[in-house]
Specification:
single chain, 261 residues, alpha/beta, Cobalt-precorrin-4 Transmethylase, domain 1, Methyltransferase, Cobalt-precorrin-4 Transmethylase, Domain 2, five-stranded mixed β-sheet, 8 helices, binds S-adenosylmethionine
């Protein structure tokens, strides 16, 4: 469906669509409708294969994924690509894992379109923090255990390590959710303990959350790095630290292919 942009030109419809953490049943109705009517889908590495199968055969698929250290397209190229596709008059879905506006750089793409007069819409997705914890049997808040949640990125900046305010994060009454935090987990654990969070604070890592391949490792702040290493967890993995993780045994409802957590 063609739209008129602020530049006065006709262009295709652009939707930044969050695909959720993996289970296709977690797509919103709007996301599914847009995916099924798209003419071009620009997708990331984290979009699950089950969701990729929902894209019509007639739609062009363009991979813009990023694996750590192996950028397929750099962000500026993705921004330009979206602009060019929109101007070509086709309906474009920019499909990203989780929610586009949570550690997804969706806002950078939206800003680029906005600054070039291209109308777009944003379709929220279930972010890994919500999806992986629900399927991992871990409430983000629970009366008496956590009154709030903090979401932080855990990836190491090239040669610089983590740059986080550990004093703010080491709060025993708040759940800490760390995206992209598997590699840096030993450093994170040491910093949080140094900042005063008790060593025995319950902690979990959830790999491939919400999919049949989900694996969950439960431990403490002190031993989670070693447990995840021993289990051979890989990305994508979400780290959750806080007293709410103590409920994970009782709330373990999700049956995976392996039959357990
Ligand atoms: C670049 S961030 C993208 C986050 C995404 N926009 C969201 O809202 O979930 C990628 C990180 O999200 C987390 N993640 C995303 N999907 C996941 C999944 N299915 N299982 C575990 N972690 C996931 C991992 O920590 C991964 O390294």
């Amino acid at each position: 469906m063609a739209e008129q942009g602020q530049d006065g030109r006709q262009h295709g419809r652009v939707a930044l669509v969050g695909a959720g953490p993996g289970d296709p049943d977690l797509l919103t109705v709007k996301a599914l409708r847009l995916i099924q009517s798209a003419q071009v889908v620009v997708y990331d590495r984290l979009v699950s294969r089950e969701i990729m199968e929902l894209i019509p055969a007639s739609a062009e698929r363009i991979y813009a994924g990023k694996a750590l250290g192996h950028h397929h397209l750099v962000q500026d190229e993705i921004n330009e690509l979206l602009l060019t596709l929109a101007r070509s008059g086709r309906d474009v879905v920019r499909l990203k894992g989780g929610d586009s506006f949570v550690f997804g750089r969706g806002s950078e793409e939206a800003l680029h379109l906005a600054r070039h007069g291209i109308h777009f819409e944003v379709v929220p997705g279930i972010s890994a923090a919500a999806g992986c914890t629900s399927y991992g049997g871990i409430p983000l808040t629970h009366r008496g255990l956590a009154t709030g949640v903090q979401f932080v990125p855990g990836h190491l900046r090239e040669g610089k390590g983590l740059d986080l305010r550990w004093d703010k994060l080491a709060d025993p009454d708040t759940t800490l959710v760390i995206y992209m935090g598997l590699q840096s987990l030993p450093e994170t654990s040491a910093e949080l303990i140094k900042a005063g969070l008790p060593c025995d604070t319950p902690a979990a890592a959830i790999e491939n959350g919400t999919t049949p391949r989900q694996r969950r490792v439960i431990g403490t702040l002190a031993d989670l790095p070693e447990r995840t290493r021993a289990a051979g967890l890989q990305a994508p993995t979400l780290i959750v630290i806080g007293k709410v993780v103590s409920l994970a045994g009782e709330l373990d409802w999700f049956m995976t292919e392996g039959g357990g957590s």
